[in-house]
Design goal:
The chain has about 200 residues and is of the alpha/beta class. Helix content is about 45%, strand content about 10%. The protein is globular and about 60 Å long.
Length: about 200
């Protein structure tokens, strides 16, 4: 198996000015949790929103959701409205690809609790951007996330909430996840993936 490579732009550290400008352009708070991906049912965004609702207000951070809306977005929106989470879930409009690295790097935690993925490229983008990852313990996501990401049952908002509070309250854990996660992401850099592809072609001739 030869995995996908992650675009180099996610490895490049954004300047403080770039991050601040990105925050201002998209109305992002100073600290936030992040979800990136389409809002289809299998992406399971509702579990993340339910986890946010479990966390006490004093310990909670806003959730920024970047991705295309679907009919499932209405299900998520109804839960947000019915549970008074309107000010806690932010849907920035039309985030440009060139701005995504700064959006990742400004986040405290990346959440990706999908029910199924062929790989899970946003996980790798988050690891490359040096932020901790909470993701599903099923499908291909453990392979994309590596051993130092927090793997949870995607259908358990309680597990997701515990993962969020553990990381936010433990600086040493957060630092370890960032450093080891970034090191793991280097397995998928462009040079290594290209070399493997070349070896495959050469051995197939």
């Amino acid at each position: 198996v030869i995995y996908s490579a992650c675009d180099y732009r996610y490895h490049k550290i954004a300047t403080a000015e770039t991050i601040q400008r990105t925050r201002s352009n998209y109305g992002l708070p100073e600290r936030y949790l992040l979800y990136v991906g389409s809002m289809s049912e299998r992406k399971n965004l509702l579990s993340v929103v339910k986890a946010l609702n479990i966390i006490p207000r004093a310990d909670r951070l806003p959730l920024v959701v970047v991705g295309a809306t679907t009919s499932y977005s209405n299900v998520v929106g109804d839960y947000i409205k019915n549970n008074g989470l309107d000010s806690w879930v932010i849907f920035p409009k039309r985030v440009e690809t060139k701005d995504l690295p700064a959006v990742y790097q400004a986040a405290e935690i990346f959440l990706y609790t999908s029910l199924y993925e062929g790989f899970g490229m946003p996980i790798l983008e988050a690891l490359s951007s040096r932020i901790p990852v909470i993701t599903s313990n099923i499908s291909a996501m453990p392979e994309a996330a590596g051993p130092d990401s927090r793997l949870i049952d995607p259908e358990s908002p309680d597990e997701i909430a515990t993962g969020i509070t553990d990381i936010l309250s433990d600086d040493s854990l957060r630092h370890k996840m960032i450093e080891n996660g970034y090191a793991y992401s280097q397995k998928f850099n462009n040079k290594k993936v290209t070399e493997k592809m070349l070896q495959l072609y050469q051995t197939s001739i």
